[in-house]
Amino acid sequence: MSDITPQDVSGSADKTHPFDAYEPPPLTAEIVPSSSSGPRFGRVKAICIAAIVLGGAGGVAALLSAVGLVVGKQLQAAFSGPAQPGLNPELQEAQQRVQQEIQAVQDRFWVPNFVLAGAHMVVATLLLTGGIQALRRVRPGRRLLVTACLSAIVFELVRGAVQTVIQVQVLSVTMQFFGQMIEASMEQAAEMAEWLAWFSRLAMLAGLLLAIGWVLAKLVFYSVAVWYLQKPVVGQYLDNP
Fold first, then answer.
1. Is a pLDDT exceeding 90 seen at residue 158?
2. DSSP 1
């Protein structure tokens, strides 16, 4: 009978029980997300898709804005028809004057609007590229998307301030036109002119409120996206495909 040494016993125990209860499990560098974290990464995909949509729509809007700034006067002159027959001469003069004053406001802000159109195109490109790369889990995609969202926040704030100044000046010119229209229509249809003025004011106010609400919604989305994309678990998921 052969002798069994303590070393043989411990060696056979290690071979028989490779995962001893007192031995820590091996560590791995890669961490695979569990199934319980699935909904979280579904939100990541939703953020990426929303960024892609905003980037695409923003690129189209920036392009149209640049085209409007370049050929806006020519288009307005081409589509502006002759004065309506039978219209009060005072109203015709007031209408021409208000159009000239509104165009003067647009001309004063032509350079800022053109710069904003270029910046809008850059931000839209960043959102589109970052959203696509983050959705594909390409390594620089998350950082690019965070940068795009931060740039979009700054852009929306600056553009909102400029557009507010423009709208206030245009609204002032339009209110003067409505007052002149009511005065010129006193003998003809003063009540109808007053109702038309009030309706136009409400329409402009509603449009302004909708624009402000849309800007606030985008600011909230960009802020939430930046916060969420910088969470460690999200960064590990996107940066380690």
1. yes
2. -
